[in-house]
Design a protein that fits this description.
Number of helices: 17
Strand content: 5-15%
Mean pLDDT: 90
Distance between the termini: 54 Å
Helix content: 40-55%
Low-confidence stretches: 1-12
Shape: elongated
């Protein structure tokens, strides 16, 4: 067993911190400052790698799989978000935290090895005093639920169509506090990705995942009525690039419906729906989601943006291959560029699609949970919405 003094790995000249988390860990490790290192760990997601069969059969028990580090130390190995390993079919990712580790630690004979093989690594002993310190640090710095934050992987996708497509899913990535530009082993972790698909999408098989993905990419997951109304206004406003007044818009929708041979959309639904859209747009302008004279051209962004996260969840839950997920994400990005004109236009469409689907003009969490990521993505210097051009 090593001494109580933590050991940092020697820095590699070619290594650069994948995210700000690894940068802060590296600085603390280089200084030999275990207290600072623990403070960073307490505020970060930590990831264990566990054989899939073991995880599936664990029954909720802590997934401890100790490893020998080659120097006589038995370790529990964890990695931070930017240092997660490449996908390995026989292993799954399990998210944990310093707080959870401290309360479920398997015993002092095991050390905690963070990011082994990188300059941000540290080997931490786990005697009773050490574990008490972990608990105190975690209690003092524990953030609870992940904060809304823009987390960029510097070694991830930063340019090109795939990066652009991943950025179309940034609303949810920022809201959930996960890497936006990673197409790795998991969105969150294996169990949580599967839970989102099961509980939120009734999706537990590869076939069901593909059906849902097809619906998202076809714009069929959301109700058809808002997009119909928006498309009528968009076409009639194309020449002047100014929205129709409410009465003209209503009459135009009635005329289009009258001209249809088969009416799949009920006019009785469309007329009050136009009023809802106009009220939401007024609120969007007040909150900066739209410019003072702006309007929403399409709400298809909501399906396309969710398709990106849906692909990443499917990858994490082992319901699709990496190639299939990437293909779906690229397609979502291409469709977003086809139907929207800018990041701001895309975001407004995403927001309207979300509130028309779930909000009832209460402007509660369904609205604020999209407004906050929008503001962050339109303002932070390293936001992909500011660094990636809309047209690729």
């Amino acid at each position: 067993m090593s001494t109580s003094k933590p050991r940092a790995m020697a820095a590699s000249r070619s290594w650069s911190p994948p995210t700000r988390i690894e940068r802060d860990l590296h600085d603390a490790a280089k200084a030999g400052d275990r207290g600072r290192y623990l403070r960073v760990l307490a505020q970060a997601d930590l990831f264990l790698y566990v054989p899939k069969d073991h995880k599936d059969a664990s029954g909720g028990k802590p997934p401890w799989i100790p490893y020998a580090d080659g120097r006589g130390n038995w370790c529990v190995v964890v990695r931070t978000a930017g240092e997660r390993l490449p996908r390995r079919p026989q292993f799954t990712v399990v998210r944990t935290s310093l707080n959870e580790l401290a309360h479920d630690w398997p015993g002092r004979r095991f050390s905690l090895h963070v990011n082994p093989g990188t300059p941000a690594a540290m080997l931490l002993t786990s005697g009773p005093w050490d574990v008490r310190r972990w608990k105190r640090t975690a209690k003092r710095h524990l953030l609870g639920d992940r904060p809304v934050s823009l987390l960029t992987k510097n070694t991830g996708h930063r340019t090109g169509p795939l990066a652009h497509a991943l950025a179309c899913g940034a609303h949810l990535s920022v809201r959930n506090g996960v890497l936006w530009n990673d197409l790795g082993d998991a969105y969150d972790d294996y169990e949580r990705d599967a839970e989102i698909l099961r509980d939120g999408w009734a999706t537990t098989t590869a076939h069901a995942w593909q059906e849902q993905m097809d619906a998202l990419l076809d714009g069929r997951n959301s109700p058809a009525e808002p997009e119909f109304a928006l498309s009528v206004r968009r076409e009639l406003s194309r020449a002047t690039d100014t929205p129709l007044d409410a009465d003209t818009w209503r009459r135009a929708c009635s005329q289009v419906l009258d001209d249809l041979d088969e009416r799949a959309i009920d006019e009785a639904v469309i007329q009050p729906l136009i009023g809802r859209i106009l009220r939401y747009e007024a609120r969007f302008r007040a909150d900066g989601l739209l410019t003072p004279d702006g309007y929403v051209r399409s709400a298809l962004a909501y399906d396309y943006g969710r398709a990106v996260s849906f692909a990443r969840w499917g990858l994490g839950a082992r319901l699709c291959s990496e190639a299939t997920a990437e293909q779906a994400i690229r397609r979502a990005g291409a469709l977003a560029r086809e139907h929207h004109t800018s990041w701001a236009d895309f975001s407004a469409g995403y927001a309207l699609g979300r509130v028309m689907r779930f909000d009832t003009e209460e402007f509660g969490s369904w609205y604020t949970s999209v407004l906050e990521p929008h503001r962050l993505l339109m303002s932070e210097d390293d936001s992909p919405w500011l660094t990636l051009p809309w047209r690729q």
